[in-house]
Amino acid sequence: MATMAYITTNDSIQLHYTRKGSGTKTLVLVHGWQVSSAVWNLVADELSRKYQLIIVDLRGAGASNAAPGPYTVEQHSEDLFNLVQSLELKNFVLVGHSMGGAIAQRFAADHCELLVGLIVIASVPASGLELPADFQAFFRSAAGNRSQTEALWKVFIANPLAAETFTMLLDSSMTVKPEACLESFDSWRQLNFADEVKRIMTPTLVIAPEADNPMTPDFLREKIVALIPNSRLRVIEKTSHYAQLEQPQELGKLITHFVDELCSL
């Protein structure tokens, strides 16, 4: 059974989260750019059978979309800190996808003592991501535009999703304020804290969907695994950017194996 609630951040905005499942281990799930926490629904069904999940809607997205900016990776990380402090969480596993992976790395670099594990999936690296001008324009065109968002997501999905799953993805995208879409896009493109992630000592799992581009396994190995000392790479085959929608069971198995291994240490 899931419960939904809000916490108030240090700048007095309402941040929405969902609590689902139970267990002695807690996982905090952070979604990526131009979507809401709904993208975790399928894999959350798997994970909540064994763990307590805290699933956040970043400011400007989902049920937190009334919140004003700034909509930057740094602000999202600070919001996440407010959330875990409010819920008195510690020794949890932080899981981030795409931009959420960059937020998770920022959080881990600043608050490593709160974490027992870190998982990043198809993650934007701490050094940001260079994109050609035409591709930047394609991303920007998604702000508040359902048809352009649909075209964009089709580029990032290798295996056709069930119609209801793809509709859920689009619906979640349309909860994101256009200004949040645009500002956060510029934020994660221009990140520059690669030297700081070298101090992350938390056991870290980097998950690379085989068919993702530009976050290929080789790219993530060079930009993330090579920097975080206690990290390892795992590849999900025949999957692109949205592994949690394309192969939720396989992703769930990777996460579960890593978390259970942490528990045995």
Automatic annotation (TrEMBL):
Q: Does the keyword Hydrolase apply?
A: yes
- List UniProt keywords, sorted A-Z: Hydrolase
**Which top-level group of life is the source organism from?**
Bacteria
The cross-references to InterPro entries, in alphabetical order and at most eight, read: AB_hydrolase_1 (IPR000073), AB_hydrolase_fold (IPR029058), AB_hydrolase_sf (IPR050266), Epox_hydrolase-like (IPR000639)
Extract the SUPFAM superfamilies matched here: alpha/beta-Hydrolases
Residues annotated as domain AB hydrolase-1: 27-251
* One Pfam family named in its UniProt record: Abhydrolase_6
Keyword Hydrolase, does the record have it? yes
A molecular-function term among this protein's GO annotations: hydrolase activity
This chain's protein is named Hydrolase
Lineage of the native species?
Bacteria, Bacillati, Chloroflexota, Ktedonobacteria, Ktedonobacterales
